[in-house]
Specification:
The protein is an all-alpha fold. The protein has 3 domains: 53-133; 134-282; 294-370, no CATH class. It has 12 helices and no strands. Helix 6 packs antiparallel against helix 8 and helix 10 (322-337) crosses helix 12 (360-370). It is elongated. Keywords: Membrane, Transmembrane, Transmembrane helix.
Length: 380
């Protein structure tokens, strides 16, 4: 079939656009044509809306930036505040820990002080009661006699040494002895013999009085006769005649006078001791009914029982057999009561707590568990 010919295009009427007549203002009539041609054409419709949209977009960008900056600064402030709170909480926790540690240390020190005061006070009370008993009073009275003798006899000997030369000179002058003879040499023994007699009388009288006896007047006569003879011989040995000689005899009399004074003081104190009545008005030890605390640790000897390894300050009783746990509690109670010393050995536990009966290995294990434990301290 043959192709049909294409229809011819219909001519389209082109609209005729009338150019608007350019109206010239009267003031521009005299201007040249070039000036009038330079006038800008009038903006098209819709350009103001576009500008408004652009400005609004620019303002929106600025607002977003400002809001973002504000949010970031706000987050920074919140972050710094949070860090400050964390640091403050850290400081508070550290201060609380220090206060807890200090309180715990003070509690331990106070508990230790209380226990020490309690035990020391009990011992002081027992000591005071014992010191006030008749037995202790008698011991102190007897000590006075002993001290008087121990202090008086050396003093008596010293004065006798000074008096020896005077007595020897007095004997030589009275007997007109020649120097170097046997009698002249034996004259040096006169004063020691006289002072020995005095010392024997003093010591014998003290011993007899301490044993319930006493001496009579005869011993006193012998004592003062010996002292008087010593004084007389010293004066004879040092007196060369006249009042001037008397002045030279006085230094020689220092020895016998000192011996006489010392003997008198010893006898005086010995009489005071004899007259004392320590048993009157004082309770006896049997009447006090005192049960002194045992000397803990006195029998704490190292035996074949070997101590185990030292444990921590606190004692963990969990997982222990019942017999070991019971023994551990008894040992802790014994340490608190002062029956056992701190860190007792297995032998001390075996003897003082177990009564010397039972398994020694259990005592050794308990000693290892309680090592380092103190009353008032617990494991944290």
């Amino acid at each position: 079939m043959a192709a049909l010919p294409a229809p011819a295009p219909v001519p389209v009427a082109t609209p005729v656009v009338r150019q608007s007549e350019i109206e010239y203002e009267p003031e521009f009539e005299d201007r040249p044509v070039e000036v009038t041609r330079r006038r800008k054409p009038r903006r098209e419709v819709g350009s103001a809306d576009e500008l408004r949209e652009q400005l609004e977009e620019a303002r929106a960008v600025i607002d977003v930036r400002r809001e973002d900056e504000r949010d970031r600064r706000e987050q920074d402030v919140e972050h710094r505040v949070a860090l400050a709170r964390v640091q403050e909480r850290e400081r508070t926790e550290a201060r609380l820990r220090r206060e807890r540690d200090r309180d715990a240390a003070e509690d331990v020190a106070l508990a230790e002080l209380y226990r020490r005061a309690k035990r020391s006070g009990e011992r002081a009370r027992i000591r005071a009661e014992i010191d006030g008993s008749a037995e202790m009073r008698a011991l102190r009275v007897a000590k006075v006699r002993k001290v008087a003798l121990l202090a008086g006899i050396p003093v008596l000997t010293a004065f006798a040494a000074w008096s020896t030369t005077g007595v020897q000179a007095g004997v030589v002058r009275l007997l007109n002895l020649d120097v170097g003879t046997a009698s002249w040499t034996a004259a040096w023994a006169v004063e020691p013999a006289l002072i020995t007699i005095v010392a024997l009388i003093i010591i014998g009288r003290a011993v007899l009085r301490a044993s319930g006896g006493n001496v009579d007047w005869k011993a006193g006569v012998v004592e003062w006769t010996a002292l008087g003879l010593s004084l007389a011989l010293n004066i004879v040995g040092g007196w060369h005649g006249g009042w001037d000689g008397l002045l030279t005899a006085l230094p020689h009399s220092i020895g016998p006078i000192g011996c006489a004074g010392t003997a008198f003081l010893i006898g005086l104190f010995d009489g005071y001791v004899t007259a004392a009545r320590p048993w009157e008005g004082a309770p006896r030890l049997a009447d006090l009914k005192i049960t002194p605390p045992s000397a803990a640790g006195s029998d704490d000897l190292r035996t074949a029982i070997k101590r185990g390894k030292h444990g921590p300050a606190g004692v963990e009783s969990g997982g222990l057999p019942d017999d070991v746990r019971t023994l551990l509690a008894d040992v802790q109670t014994a340490i608190e009561d002062g029956v056992l010393s701190a860190d007792p050995s297995g032998y001390a536990i075996y003897k003082h707590v177990m009564g010397g009966k039972g398994d020694r290995a259990r005592a050794s294990k308990t000693a290892a568990l309680v090592a380092g434990w103190r009353p008032g301290l617990r494991a944290v």
